[in-house]
Amino acid sequence: MKVSIIYKDNEKDKVNVTVTYDDLWDGDVTLARVIYPFLKKYRKMYDRRKWYMGHPMDFASDPTKPDGPDNPDRFNEWLECLDKMVYSFEWIAKKRDWDGPEQKAFFKECDRLLKLHKKELEALSILDKERFAKAKKSTSLSSLKWDRRFEILQPVHETFWPKFDAHRQKIQEGIDLFAKYFGSFWL
Fold first, then answer.
1. Enclosing H/E stretch for 115
2. Phi, psi of 136 (to 5 degrees)
3. How many C-alpha atoms does 115 have within 13 Å on its Cβ side?
4. What pLDDT band is residue 75 in, cutting at 50, 70 and 90?
5. Distance of alpha carbon 171 from its chain centroid, rounded?
6. pLDDT attached to residue 139
7. How many CB atoms lie within 10 A of CB 12?
8. What pTM was computed for the model?
9. I want to staple 1 with a disulfide (CB 3.0 to 4.6 A). Which of 23, 76, 88, 162 is the partner?
10. CA–CA separation, 20 vs 119, rounded Å?
11. Could you tell me the CA-to-CA distances from 174 to 52, 132, 187 in Å, in that order?
């Protein structure tokens, strides 16, 4: 993907966006690679110029009520929202997955368990070939090897899937906040 925006003072801005078919393959990653640097720079602006940076009205104190603990300016909550957005888009842009930091351990554990059952799975693979060769075209057979693999890996799935779901929810929260406050990205 190529994005070029040339800002002109008294003329119409020049915007060129080129999207290739490769960009469409992992569209979430492609877009995250564009959104993440924007959000990162936008968030850094608050670190440098905090005292006169705007933030969404949802986080401002109510002007019809007196200042105080019952009517707080929730500026820091806006910064937390930005941090969640940055985390989500950074994770997708750099890691290219949604499962989280546990994914590597998941695959390592799967490999470890499958090695323990290597001979059994090879024998089932041979048996599958024989069964499929003898079966009629209209016959529906499941693979004994794959059924056994799922059985072996079930405990690993039960351990890691809740962790993956929690990370996906964390990423989705940042994306939802980005969508909710999309109109608030201005200085």
1. helix 103-116
2. -75, 160
3. 6
4. confident
5. 5
6. 74
7. 6
8. 0.77
9. 23
10. 45
11. 24, 47, 20
**What is the widest separation between alpha-carbon atoms in the chain?**
83
Among left, alpha and beta (phi > 0; psi -120 to 50; other), residue 143 is beta
β-pair partners for 18: 2
Residue entry with tokens 């008294």: 10
Structure tokens at 166: 């929690």
Q: Locate tokens 């910064």: which residue? A: 79
CA distance 81 to 78: 5
Share of the chain above pLDDT 70, in %: 93
CB 77 within 8 A of CB 55: no
Helices (H), 1-143: 21-25, 27-48, 75-95, 103-116, 118-134
Judge whether 164 and 103 are in contact, CB under 8 Å: yes
Distance between CA 28 and CA 26 in Å, rounded? 5
Distance (Å, whole) CA 103 – CA 122: 26
pLDDT of residue 68: 64
Rg over alpha carbons for the chain, rounded to the nearest Å, is 26
